[in-house]
Amino acid sequence: MQALVQRVSSAEISIDDLLHAKINCGLLAFICFELGDTVAAIDKFISKISSFCFFDDDSRILSSNLKEIEGELMIVSQFTLAAVTKKGNKASFHKAANTNDARALYNELILRLDGSSINYQSGRFGADMNISLVNNGPVTFSFNF
User: Three-state DSSP class for 1?
Assistant: First the structure.
């Protein structure tokens, strides 16, 4: 499982020109499930996303986490994070989980977030989404679970 996480002042998802989800200060996480991923990766992601220091304290040091600032999380499925781009001019997606497995893991992620204390919004798996965000910093981290 890969996650590209950006600290945002705000983020919105529109699907079919309708607002689907919106957050204020927090994190936008693009999620990609790869071959062999299990629910253990989801648990590691939730633990990391809630405790990792993405946010500045008064001295502008990254020392605060999502819970401490009472921030929000937006989850977006993005299989293109699994792209292999080393050869040629066209991406290969052979490392990405197949659609059915990725959808099941994404749904499990949402269920586990429902059971957590994280205030979150999510995109729709497989949908064509327009995402607007204000990257605060910029601060962006890449995680592999």
Answer: coil
